[in-house]
Amino acid sequence: MGIITQMCGIIICLVLAVFFKQQRKLHLETRSAFVRVWQMVFLGLILDISSMYILRYEEFFTHDFAMIVCNAYLLTILWKQVLGVLYIDTYISENHDFKQREIWSYLVYGIVGSVIIIATPISGMMDRGKTGYHYGQATIMAYMLAIILLIRMIILIMQYRRQMTKISRWSASVWIGLCLTATLIQFLNNDLMIAGFFSAVGIMIIYLKLENPERFIDSDTGFFNALGFRRCMRQLDETGESVAMLYVSYEQVGHQMMIVDKEVRLEVYSFFDHLKNIYPFRGVEEGIVIAIRKPNDTLYILNAIKDRFDKPWGKHKDVYLKIKMIYLEDTLLLKSAFDCKKIFSFVRQDKKLHDEDMILIDDDIIRDAYKEEDVENMIQESIEKHNVEVFYQPIYSTVSKTFESAEALMRIRKKDGSIAMPGEFIEIAEKRGSILQLGAEVFNEVCSFIEEHNMEKIGLHYIEVNLSAVQCAYKNLAHDLIKTMEQHHVDPHYINLEITESASIGNEKVFLDNLYMLKNYGVTFSLDDFGTGQSNLNYIVAMPVDIVKFDRGMTLSYFQNAKAKYVMDAAMMMIKGMHLQIVSEGIENEEQLKIMEALGIHYIQGYYFSKPLSVKKFVEFIEAPIEHN
Q1: Which of 544, 553, 542, 470 is closest to 506 using CA atoms?
Q2: What is the DSSP string of 491-511?
Q3: How far is CA 195 from the centre of its chain?
Q4: pTM across the whole model
Q5: CB-based burial of residue 85 (10 Å sphere; 0-12 exposed, 13-18 middle, 19+ buried)?
Q6: Measured between alpha carbons, how far is 287 from 465 in angstroms, rounded to an integer?
Q7: 382-437 confidence digits (pLDDT tens)
Q8: What are phi and psi of 473, to 5 degrees?
Q9: What is the C-alpha separation between 119 and 74, in angstroms, rounded?
Q10: Running DSSP on this structure, what letter comes out for residue 261?
Q11: Strand partners, 280
Q12: How far, in Å, CA of 1 to CA of 192, rounded?
């Protein structure tokens, strides 16, 4: 019974070895630790069976040889658990120095325990029926030392359970449970030889749940997947190992479709699969993230990739692929190896680098990427903590000679209490998509302002709120804005939404659907920053705008450039002919004000009257008599 059970354990170990050998693997610390445990379990099974036969046929072996084999088996009982606790330690410790100290402490424990086992006599070797076994003080000592380590493993899992995934906790717990149960049973009843078999079953569970290389493989490409990437980057952070990273994307030359034909993609995957000393990970779209294990091989790998993509692909060799490579020479240049994907994404979205086929990530790119990340973190924190503030800049009516409206301008309150201006974060917010949350915060604040103040009493006809191009392309924009107005019981004619000329570029249908739904609800619109970018009166015709705003640059050009003066005069004539009103931004002195009034500009906005003000100061400003402003 004992030999058959242990032979089953050996078969389990051999089957695992065959599968493990054939599969593509990441060279992870956990994998190496697992292999060491597997080796000790396998050795223990071999020695256990050997000791059984030696005890059964004692007359054919010398006493010293029998002692050596039996002691060796007892040592595997101890060292299985020493290596087991080291394996668990690879999952719970992210501090490399701490992990090294732990390793040494367990190794010292194993060495001291081994000396004790060897120095303690094995007594009472005997044969019962057909199965030989041994017992005595050394056996008892081996099991006791092993049980102490098993208990230590349980304590580690309980202590660091939050640093382990649910599946890793479960797998390790099952393995420990099997080993502890078998050890206790065999400690109490020596002739039930099941410890080695239970250890093999435990190793099988660990393999299937944690160390199966298939867990880290993407089924479509054969490359490593996101889980494999995370495990690899985590190990780089822990060990401080130097690794070069490469991002490769490709597209078919002259092809109208975004996705390359499957046959060609498989050929590309096969090419990268055969490159040596690299870890290929599946990236976004057609991209591939590559970890170059030996940085000295980088030049060879880059040239190999370039040379292959210079040649045609496909069954008929008629498909040409254009590649773009982004290269990071060392992950140690980053705060964390995980950040390489963020850096690659930053470079891919950088319009200044869009046309370059080979981009080397330098210190400037890394600094800019981290700066963008810091700004995005500031944005998210401001949203979570409601640190998004709205300042209001008064708008003066040249007809009524009063302040009839105001533009709501976004500000973010930093941790130190200072104010972040839109120029510091708007572009990044639009790029990252957080402008949707910021815009919602601002609109909610504006609606709260209108709800809390008597607009007619303070003389305001409406508040202008900026909409970014990203917001205009958001399908549910109109629904969300209307919902917010209803929650605050805001009459929609108090809201004027400022849109830019480029707002329709992303999705014109969604953009216009949003505008007309809001228009029908009662909201009015301004065309903001007229005179910049792709200025075209066709925008005014297509969009349901009531007001056109000349940006500060165009206003100042009117006073400084004769050609700009003629252009602005012509534009004003056409805009007035369409019965639209005009706001002139950037007015800074009385002379400019008088010229704009003489031209028939309806509204004036600028520092001549006031800079953007906080809510309290803004209300005080517009409630004061006009002659004091």
Answers
A1: 470
A2: -GGGEEEEE-GGGGSS-HHHH
A3: 43
A4: 0.73
A5: buried
A6: 39
A7: 999 888 999 999 999 999 999 999 999 999 988 888 899 888 899 899 888 899 99
A8: -90, 0
A9: 12
A10: P
A11: 290
A12: 9
